[in-house]
Amino acid sequence: MDSLPAQLGFRMPAEWEPHAATWIAWPHNREDWPGKFSPIPWVYTEIVRLLARSEPVHIVVADREKKRRAADRLDAAGVDMGRVRFFKAATDRVWLRDSGPTFVVRDREGSRGLSPNREAEAPAEPGMPARREARPPDGDGFGPGSHDSPAGGVGMVEWKFNAWAKYENYRNDRRLPRRVSTWLDLPRWVPRAEQGGRPARVVMEGGAIDVNGRGTLLTTEECLLGEVQARNPGLDRAGLEKVFADYLGIRHVVWLGRGIAGDDTHGHVDDLARFVGPRAVVTVVEPNPDDPNHEPLRENLERLPAARDQDGEPLEVIELPMPRPVVFEGLRLPASYANFYIGNTVVLVPTFNDPADRVALDTLARAIPDREVVGIHCLDLVLGLGTLHCLSQQQPLGPAGRLGSQN
């Protein structure tokens, strides 16, 4: 039965393709920034201020009081509040790249299967879109209005989230994709694969994968195939590639090795290497042989020139520097310029009061010339073990062409 997203013409778009909105969750968990929480809401305020110039920003908050506090900060900073919408849901953490859904698009209207913004009557077999009913906005002004239904041809994939196979508090976060599906009235697929002799839900995080929108995906062996923090112990390389093909429309996977020091996700690719064009990849490098990042980043750099895209074409490899080690109370933090976020008209880049900041900004400005490249100070934010890409999730606009020079 033709029920899987790829069979219905859906694919995961590249981050530079047009967005309907960017999703974030407002920071609230002080334990994620021990002793440094007070500046974090202001970092988020600046992120929203810049993003709102580029596209609508959807913010998840737990209740009316947290919404009020967030709105007060945003208003004080001159944010265009007409570009901001709040959604009410409890979260454990704010890293929506991983706990949120992965959106998919179908370029050709009229493809067989689901009609735009509709779903099958029931999940007849594993992988079928799950049933849900749209919910109107509540009396506190949360949630979507009638004008917020996205264009036809957008759906979402709900991975199983288990807090990176590391933490125990993720009950609220794991429910978020289903809430987003309800808020937006989108079809939703729940990936399953044979693991240990039986179908099981697939554990995945958005930070573990990066795509060029044409059928090629970047990931790491450390994250998805390693024994430490193993997400899917019964799923091998071929099994994962089939999942990516079925649910994201992927035709080719580029496997890198290890991620960066300090990364509690154990090898997320969005701290390491990112597509900035259909055949262009930026990858971080560390020239200091005494730095623990030197060897794994050198190995990844050696793999990329031999890598190919979905059509067998070589990739353009662009080197991106690493900042000097960022340490707090003896803990090496995952500071990386690769954790940038591409909006419709802006690229937000984490900076660390480091001489390499300007090199990273210039490199990305040349790699993504059709957007304004802006630095966001992240020395405090990275104490939470993530920065700009980790906290954001793009919602694609729907059937549309690519923007600017990324064509």
Describe this structure in words.
The chain is of the alpha/beta class. It has a single domain (6-398), classed as L-arginine/glycine Amidinotransferase, Chain A. Helix content is 21%, strand content 22%. It has helices at residues 40-51, 64-76, 96-99, 163-166, 176-184, 221-224, 237-248, 294-303, 356-367, 388-391, and strands spanning 10-11, 19-25, 57-61, 84-88, 102-106, 154-157, 188-189, 192-195, 198-201, 210-211, 216-220, 252-256, 273-277, 280-285, 316-321, 327-328, 331-332, 341-342, 346-351, 372-377, 393-396. Strand 16 (327-328) and strand 17 form a beta hairpin. It starts with 9 loop residues before the first strand and ends in an 11-residue tail after the last strand. Mean pLDDT is 90; it is low at 110-137, 145-151 and 401-407.
Any key phrases for this structure?
407 residues, alpha/beta, L-arginine/glycine Amidinotransferase, Chain A, four-stranded mixed sheet, 10 helices, 22% strand, globular
